[in-house]
Structure formats: structure tokens, C-alpha cells
Amino acid sequence: MSKQNIQNSTLLISIGETVRMLRKQKGYSQEKLAEMADLHTTTISEIECGKSNLTIISLERIAHALDCTIIAFFPSIQAEEDSDFNEQIKRLVLNHRRMKERDRPIHQNVIKAIADAFDCQKEAKKNLS
Asked: What are phi and psi of 99, to 5 degrees?
């Protein structure tokens, strides 16, 4: 992906805006978040501006520092209880089971984040009823 495409990525902009919003909700400066996530302050700034093609590891560190799951950075993803969504989850779990042991930890974190988000949405829907 070229530098221009990265800067124009709506996904990166959306993630950056969410990081900024969650950081401010916690009352953290960019410096504090960078320290907690073991990243450089410039990296946090670039992420928040949508100018950094961040890694899953960086996203995981930021999520941990903000006490949230990775899925929190993808608000447009709606976990719906439909057959297509359930099929995707089944495939994800099957792929996880087929992975080599050394490849599982990061994949497991992603699955856990999705499961946590799904459980939170189900709980929220139940509370609204």
C-alpha cells in the first residue's frame, strides 16, 4: 500500500479516531498512552491521524493500555446473529484448531476479542429488552 493510499484509508482514519476518543475518555495524553502501550509518541500521533498502517501487535498493545478489546476499534463491524456470521465464526474456530501451536497466541487473542464483543452486544441487547 503506497503512502498516499495509507493516508486516504477510511479504515485507518476510523481506527485513529476511535483510539483518540478512547484515549481522551481515559484522560490520557498521547505520551501516557505511548508509554503504556510501549510505543513511540509519534506512532500514537500518526495512528490517531490515520497516517500509520499499524500492526495487529500495536493495536493489541493500545487495546490493552486502554483496557478494551481490539474489536472496539472497529465500530462499524456489527456482530449479528445470522447464519453467515455464525458460519464465519465456525470457520475462524476451525482454522484456529488447525494452526500450529506456535501460531496460535495472536490468533487466539483475535478470537477472544470477537467473542468478547459478541457477548457484550448480546448482553446490551438483553438489557435493552
From this structure: -70, 155
